[in-house]
Specification:
The chain is mostly helical and about 110 residues long. Helix content is about 40%, strand content about 5%. A two-stranded antiparallel sheet has the order 1-2.
Length: about 110
């Protein structure tokens, strides 16, 4: 589990991932359900990309200022570039405004020859 140092929290996240919550993890989640974040909105987890994209577009439309489009630029062996493009969920372009929250998700694949 990347960046998580609390073993109980890591355990709860792993149980959530496998849908096998123990009573202790359920209690930890219930205890945290009303925690307030200072000047921030919590991250929303969506089961479908289309839901996340709709919510992202709504949040972006609320921000002031012009939107700027950023296009991906991939280089290297064309075969591998094409494979990454085909197998990646990352968009080839991204529309952002100043103040937009961005989550970086990196997928690393080890290519064995």
């Amino acid at each position: 589990m990347f960046r998580q140092k609390n073993p109980e929290f890591v355990e709860t996240l792993n149980e959530l991932r496998s849908a096998t919550l123990t009573p202790a993890s359920i209690q930890r989640l219930k205890a945290a359900q009303h925690h307030k974040l200072a000047d921030s909105q919590p991250t929303r987890l969506c089961a479908h990309n289309s839901t996340a994209e709709t919510q992202n577009a709504q949040c972006l439309s609320k921000l002031q200022g012009p939107a700027i489009a950023y296009a991906a630029y991939d280089s290297g062996d064309q075969y591998f570039v094409d494979q990454m493009a085909k197998n990646s969920s990352a968009p080839s372009s991204l529309l952002l405004k100043l103040g937009a929250k961005v989550r970086l998700h990196v997928e690393c694949y080890k290519i064995m020859v």
